[in-house]
Amino acid sequence: RPRSHTVTTTSSSFTANLSASSSTLAYDREFLRTVPGLLMVTEIVLGLLVWTLIAGTEYFLYPAFGWVMFVAVFYWVLTVFFLIIYMTMTYTRIPQVPWTMVGLCFNGSAFVLYLVAAIVDASSVTKDLDNHNYNSWAASSFFAFVVTSCYAGNTYFSFISWRSRTLQ
């Protein structure tokens, strides 16, 4: 006797939600026109300059420059990550994360550690170490202080944003 085969298909709401959410990924062009956005782009460009100026030398012979490299690369990667989060407005999709507090902690820690790294960088630059690398190290020291001031500015704006959220 012939058997009857019944095939039942179901549609998952997960796949429908996934396709709907990925197609509505926002892009905030206006963020780059704000002061925090401009500071973030400046941090990325000049932070890249700091660690490339040091990476092109024999920095590994001097532990102080290793510390500067660590801070510069670490915060460069994190700043690129946060720029992507802000540009794609991912922070609106994850409301469980206190983004104003995260931004304040990130920018505050970047300011403090970059300030220490810039001071270490500046105090380690001397012609006695290596005349060949002197110009690169001196330039990296200058740009490290500029990046530090950018992180200070973003810390200020993050504090203002955090303060306005906590007062509401």
From TrEMBL:
<dbReference type="GO" id="GO:0042552">
    <property type="term" value="P:myelination"/>
</dbReference>
<keyword id="KW-0472">Membrane</keyword>
<keyword id="KW-1133">Transmembrane helix</keyword>
<protein>
    <submittedName>
        <fullName>CKLF8 protein</fullName>
    </submittedName>
</protein>
<feature type="domain" description="MARVEL">
    <location>
        <begin position="31"/>
        <end position="163"/>
    </location>
</feature>
<dbReference type="Pfam" id="PF01284">
    <property type="entry name" value="MARVEL"/>
</dbReference>
<dbReference type="InterPro" id="IPR013295">
    <property type="entry name" value="MAL"/>
</dbReference>
<dbReference type="InterPro" id="IPR050578">
    <property type="entry name" value="MARVEL-CKLF_proteins"/>
</dbReference>
<feature type="transmembrane region" description="Helical">
    <location>
        <begin position="137"/>
        <end position="159"/>
    </location>
</feature>
<feature type="transmembrane region" description="Helical">
    <location>
        <begin position="60"/>
        <end position="85"/>
    </location>
</feature>
<keyword id="KW-0812">Transmembrane</keyword>
<dbReference type="InterPro" id="IPR008253">
    <property type="entry name" value="Marvel"/>
</dbReference>
<dbReference type="GO" id="GO:0019911">
    <property type="term" value="F:structural constituent of myelin sheath"/>
</dbReference>
<dbReference type="GO" id="GO:0016020">
    <property type="term" value="C:membrane"/>
</dbReference>
<feature type="transmembrane region" description="Helical">
    <location>
        <begin position="31"/>
        <end position="54"/>
    </location>
</feature>
<feature type="transmembrane region" description="Helical">
    <location>
        <begin position="97"/>
        <end position="117"/>
    </location>
</feature>
